[in-house]
Amino acid sequence: GKNPAGDAAAPADKTVTNGCPVSMVTGEELLTLTDGTLDGILPFEWTRLYRTSAVDIDCGLGFGWSHSLAHRLVVAGDSVVWTDHENRITEFPLPTVSRPAITNSLAEAAIYLGSSPDELVLAQDARFYHFRDGALTAISDAYDNRLQVLRGYSGRVERLDNGIGRSLFLR
Question: What DSSP designation does 98 have?
Fold first, then answer.
C-alpha cells in the first residue's frame, strides 16, 4: 500500500526504522500504541498508530492517528480503494459476479463479493474484514469466528462484540 503522501509504505511493524520511530524509507514518523485487548477464540488488539504522512486525516482519534478498526472502503467507478488501519491505501478492481475475487499480491490481500449483495470482504493475514457501504461491520477468521463492529448514530465505532458475552467498549 501507499501512505497518504503517496509513498510506498510497508506495515508499521515491518518498516525499517533502525531503532528510531522514523521510517528509513519514507522519512515519516511512526508511533504505535496498544491500549487494550479482547481475548477469545478470535483475539483482537486495540492499537493506535500515529503516522506523520496522515496529519490531514482524522479517523476519530485526532489528526494523524488511525486505529485497528479504521479500515474503510470507497467504491469509485470500477475500482475499490481500501484504506487500512494504518492509513495505507490500496486500490483493487471492483469485484463482480463474473470476477468475484481479486488478489493484490503487493498488498498481500484479496477482495471479494460477500454473502449479501451489498457486502465486500477483504482478506489479509488470515483475517476477513467485512464491509457494507464502505464501513467495517465485522472481522472473521477461516472458521467463521466473528467480531461484530457496532457503531453509534454518528457512525463512530462504539463496541466490538465477540458474540459470546465479551465486548470491547470504546469511548
Answer: S
Cell 464502505 appears where? 134
Question: What single letter denotes the amino acid at residue 55?
Answer: V
| Sequence spans of domains, the chain | 12-169
Asked if 123 and 135 count as a contact pair (C-beta separation under 8 A), the reply is no
Residue 147 phi, psi dihedral angles, 5° rounding? -110, 125
Give the span between the Cα atoms of 30 and 51, in whole angstroms.
5
Q: Choose the weakest-confidence range: 16-30, 76-90, 95-109.
A: 16-30
95 DSSP 8-state letter? P
Amino acid identity of 69?
L
Give pTM, 2 decimals.
Answer: 0.86
Burial of 43 (0-12, 13-18, 19+ CB in 10 A): exposed
